[in-house]
Amino acid sequence: MDIKVAIYTCMPSVMRQGLTKSYIAVRKARERRFSLLNPAECRGVAGAGTGIQPAADDLKVVYVTGFPRSGTTVLKYFFGTGEGFQQTAFDPSGFQKAWLQSHESPGKILVDKSNHYIYSADNIFRACGRKVAMVTVVRDPRDCIVSFLKYHENREVPRDMKFWDYWTEQHERFFEFAQYSGYGDRIIVLRYEDLVTAPEAAKAYFLNALGKSASSEELDASYTNQNPGEGWDDSVHERDRVSTFALSKWRQNEAPDRSLKELLDGWRKHPAAIRMMDRLGYTEEGFGVLKMKPDGFHFFSSDSTEA
Predict the structure, then answer these.
(1) Which of 177, 214, 273, 303 is the residue whose CA sits 20 to 30 A from 32?
(2) Could you tell me the CA-to-CA distances from 240 to 8, 37, 83, 104, 222 in Å, in that order?
């Protein structure tokens, strides 16, 4: 593990939370400043999302993002494994690090991941234009909550009933950007549940959306982590295949403690969360068919997916 990560992990919780909030504010400011000082020459175009695919040769970076504990790490490894792709090492400085690095990596499409890119979609596309793509994974928020119990980072995410407002607002903002930004044909969304139950189909969809052909060798569930030892300790680093081992974890505890049960059921008290859960196909029992109809952006789903 990186020495900076190790030091951070040893800090008291209150100190980590304060540092995380400060880091997010500084990072947002740096990213915005970079995007304003270095605007892309190519902006969003009329008719984006209508099936017109930019040439894959023009693509420099694929930014992978999503709500914390939604499967962004496995998605980076899986989609970043294949001919022509190169995974970047985790770096907390912002999207500009991979963007600048891409100019020194001719012939490669960099795959760069951060949960915070979901906050920065406007800055990323303002700076990079149509030479980048964004892949966002969404996951049943109840599974995110259960995952937070074992993974104590992402201190900015509320661990009480405020979680549901936070989760809903983040997704509402992102989907609004995906629909109206003009860069929808460069934005790919998929559910974690569809990824792990139909990985080959998900990767074929991803490659097709980027204008790349999918070879039979690339369409299996295996992946490679090109930067061993990066980031926080996580079981995903120990695996080499997309699997369903973490699917619907929230249902596997037959007798959760009272406070956890109340938090898992909290979405029922938030009308906006109810609507978002319904749009994404998350139900009382688990997950089912995706109901959201993407308008102007790509959204992979598997109709065969069932809870």
Answers:
(1) 273
(2) 27, 40, 17, 28, 6
